Amino acid sequence: MTRPTTMPFTLDNGAIIRPLQAQDNAALATMIREVSAEYGLTADRGFSVADKTLDCLSEVYQAQGSQYWVIEYQGKVVGGAGVAPLPANDGVCELQKMYFANTIRGQGLAKRLSALCVEYAKQQGYQSMYLETTAILVEALALYEKLGFVRCQHLGETGHDACEIAMTKTL
């Protein structure tokens, strides 16, 4: 698998999509915690907000076949999503930690960012993309279905046992 260089690009609304950098770690973790709290996704229940690596995601996404992008708007990290290999599942990657602050929702940025993740996964040679979510995230479920994800059995040990819905998409 190759690791392409991804350049930042600016959207019509002035938001910038760019690769995650170490200086984004604190802002990204704070945004994920805020969005999680908004939906009642607490750390004590096995959601990704409980991940021990949440405060150092730039290190996590340095691994081969992994990439994370943030959306920066008016100098602030307001969204992000990433791709990483799904352990013990050859050819399968996982769409991870796709979160958006309420200030930018409804502008099509989730669709744009997820398309970037799918394109990256294809470039890396993955055959399918997997994700886990919860029924509480109604908007996310609708997006995933529009993008062609279908429900499936859980794959692997992601540590997100509170995410009752697993989905996959053939790439």
TrEMBL record:
Keyword Lipid metabolism belongs to the record: no
Keywords, alphabetical: Transferase
A Pfam family matched in the record: Acetyltransf_1
Molecular function per GO: N-acetyltransferase activity
Entry keyword annotation includes Transferase: yes
PROSITE patterns tied to this protein: GNAT
Domain N-acetyltransferase: residue ranges: 15-171
Transmembrane segments: none
Protein name in UniProt: GNAT family N-acetyltransferase
Organism of this sequence: Shewanella psychromarinicola
